[in-house]
Amino acid sequence: MFKADRRTADLSAGACGMKKLGIAFAIVAATMSILLWWSSLEARQAYRALVAELDARPTLRVLDSDYEAGWLRSNAVTKVEVRGAGGQAWKRALEALGRADVRARLGFRVTHDVEHGLLPLVAWIEGGLQGAPELVRVTSRVDLDQEARDELRGTTGPLPALLVTTTVRSNGVGEMHLAVPAQALEPRDSGEDPVLRVAGRWKGLQGHFVFSLLDGTTAGRLHAPGIDIASEDFRFKLLDLSVGVDTRRDPSGLLVGGLHPRIGRVAWAGISREVVPAEAQDEDGGASRERAPSLGASPPDDTGAEAIPERVATNTPEIRVTEHDAVVVDGIDLPLRAEVAQGALRIQIDLAVERKDRDGFVAGPGAARLVLRDVDAAALAGILADEAETGPLATLRRVADRSPVLELTGFTLDTPAGPLTGSAHARLAAERALRLVSPATAPTALDARMVFEGPAQALALLGAERAERLAESGFVEIEGDALRSEVELREGELVVNGEPLRGGETEEPAIVSLAPSAAAGAATP
To answer: CA Rg, the chain, in Å?
Structure first.
């Protein structure tokens, strides 16, 4: 009897335990379902907020957006076009490549794979529980739209997509990885009128950023090994491009902090072709076997660009290939710092250049500091946010409220003939800006002065033709081997080297020779 009662009690306790376990499981399941539903809802709301923010920007337009929500994974597609300055830049670039009737817009198609709920948590556990738990992981792909791809088919060929992986954690901190794979640029037959065909190699891009959704801070670095391209008319090279980022969102709404772009080398050269008669060739019946300068290190064999062919011996007229107006700049540093204090924005840019070479005239190192200060931060934030429909005159008045100042100090550039130095100062007077009645009279609200001094041969850095014209324009005074330029703007009147400059009083400048002498030295890029 006792044993039977004990067996009954054990069975009853077991049933009670199973019932409690079932209730606990149901609670856990319900909680997980709620969490999954909540994370899916949060992901959708975050996506809609992003689309609304993009569409509110005056230079962007969201053409279409679609979001398919799921319990563990959601998918989204966004179609965006860039207008304004970005669209105009795209239009001009394509027109330079020979395209006609190009629209001033650049379209993108962005696809998102959004993991939420358990999936990012599982990935966080598999990663060794590093950092705060992961809530959302988004894998995005940014491609040019069909119209843009069609425009590029016969010029550079298709461009690689931008791949972005973004992770947001429970503490509001996120990480973003960006990548663009390396790819040869190979024009394809477009079946249209001939355009400028550009071949070469894009060497890829990598970036990593950490950001906070709580205080708006972002820190990280972007790096691109470079691009090396060539066509029948020019050759261009950009090497070792990097951008360091350390920014935050100011209460005024502006992004402040630091940006540090750096370029290892940028080089450009136009290519000319000259028909050489047979009687003007070398005595052996052909031309010397040489190539045009390669703007530094020779392009790698995998650039995808057709090499400029060597000239071969012939008794018939030949085409001689040479480069002209070659420019090489090494070691460009542009650290930028922006801060807001007492409602005023201050931006400082420190420029440093290791070396600049133009057609064999080498200068450097060089440095300068550019400062923009006393800008009304709230007014500028309102203008950037496009709070109200305002014309150029109203915009100018809002910006001029604190009489902002732009200063160039510490400018110096070493040249073989001596240093080139300079400074500049410009102030937008609020008291005069408020009295403006037309945008055409805006210069009357500006006071500015610019002074540059140095060796006359430094003008060779501008190119021979520009240097010659500038020397006779009145903007530059040359005495012996020295140059000086002093330009002032006084309430709308331009004063050049002490003499007022009025429209219609100057004649077409004569051409004088400012070619660098042999003493200045020459160097191969």
So the answer is: 32
Residue among 225, 295, 299 nearest 263 (CA): 225
**DSSP string of 204-270, one letter each residue:** -EEEEEEEETTT--EEEEEEEEEEEEE-SSEEEEEEEEEEEEEEEE-TTS-EEEEEEEEEEEEEEEE
SS3 string, 359-426, reads CCEEECCEEEEEEEEEEEHHHHHHHHCCCCCCCHHHHHHHHHHHCCEEEEEEEEEEECCEEEEEEEEE
Q: Kindly report, residue by residue over 199-211, the tens digit of the pLDDT.
A: 889 999 999 999 8
Region of 474 (left: φ > 0; alpha: ψ -120 to 50; beta: rest) is: left
What integer pLDDT is reported at residue 83 of this predicted model? 82
- What are the residue ranges in the chain where pLDDT is below 50? 1-2, 11, 20-38, 281-316, 387-388, 504-525
Only one residue has tokens 């660009």, namely 305
Summarised one tens digit per residue, pLDDT across range 464-486 is 778 888 877 888 998 888 999 99
Identity of the residue numbered 476 = V
Rounded to an integer, what is the distance from CA 86 to the centroid of its chain?
11
Residue labelled with tokens 């690689």:
160
